[in-house]
């Protein structure tokens, strides 16, 4: 299991027990990444400073450059990637990376919380410049948006403590997922179909608006298991080791991507900025701060799922 950074108990409880926190979209306070510095939000007392790169900043689309703000949609219910602090502001290693991108480009990162499955349509509609919400890059999603790939994660399951669950033979079980995720749309449906094709009971899929709610359902014994991205499952098990456990091994490793409008000039700007953060060491500092460096990449890319 990856080394996970333990957060204060109160913060963990809040992350797990929140319900309905992203049903209504609400703009958060803009987090400043301009002026050449960006401080990491949580997980460590060490600030991660980022200096503006004038050459990269000059490549920004005029609308963002003139506004001095990059508008970001996120579903902050997916600890430790993105979730909320006690003041309701988005934090996590995904948010730290986005703040570093904004700082490198000399603009402010302005976050809007939203349901996960509303973020991509909002990028298509022009409401957000970018989506930062642990998106797995898939060929289907690439039909709507572009992805700047920056991390590799797989799918992992968890079960109640002491309850053995085989993800490849979960027929008849109740499994929690976050709505709109790869686990909701691909993983559990495929496993359920394999069950019914074999004449066995289907998997009873329980969809939740946020990952915190899915985790809470497992902790409370309302479901038998849950399926989510590997860093999320590992973090949840680390925090609730007396109640839940890893079930099986990580599979279907695929890249995460920052989502941008299809064919947008911003896509290459974000890719080049992520690469600059990799090259200057900022990227790895962020991942190590949160204990998720196992999924680190050395090269930023675009739309890996369709290659």
Report on the architecture of this protein.
By secondary structure, the protein is α/β, with parallel strands linked by helices. The protein contains 10 helices and 12 strands. It has helices at residues 9-17, 54-57, 62-67, 93-105, 116-124, 182-197, 211-219, 230-239, 265-279, 282-290; strands at residues 26-27, 69-74, 83-84, 90-91, 108-113, 130-136, 145-160, 174-178, 204-208, 225-229, 244-261, 301-302. Strands 1, 2, 5, 6, 7, 8, 9, 10, 11 and 12 form a 10-stranded mixed sheet that branches. A hairpin with a 5-residue loop joins strand 3 (83-84) and strand 4. Helix 4 packs across helix 9 and helix 4 (93-105) runs antiparallel to helix 10 (282-290). The radius of gyration is 19 Å and the shape is globular. It starts with 8 loop residues before the first helix and ends in a 5-residue tail after the last strand.
Q: How do the helices and strands line up, and which of them pair or pack?
A:
Layout: H1 9-17, E1 26-27, H2 54-57, H3 62-67, E2 69-74, E3 83-84, E4 90-91, H4 93-105, E5 108-113, H5 116-124, E6 130-136, E7 145-160, E8 174-178, H6 182-197, E9 204-208, H7 211-219, E10 225-229, H8 230-239, E11 244-261, H9 265-279, H10 282-290, E12 301-302
Parallel strand pairs: 2-5, 2-6, 8-9, 8-10
Antiparallel strand pairs: 1-5, 3-4, 6-11, 7-10, 7-11, 7-12
Helix pairs in contact: 4-9, 4-10
Short description:
The chain has 307 residues and is α/β, with parallel strands linked by helices.
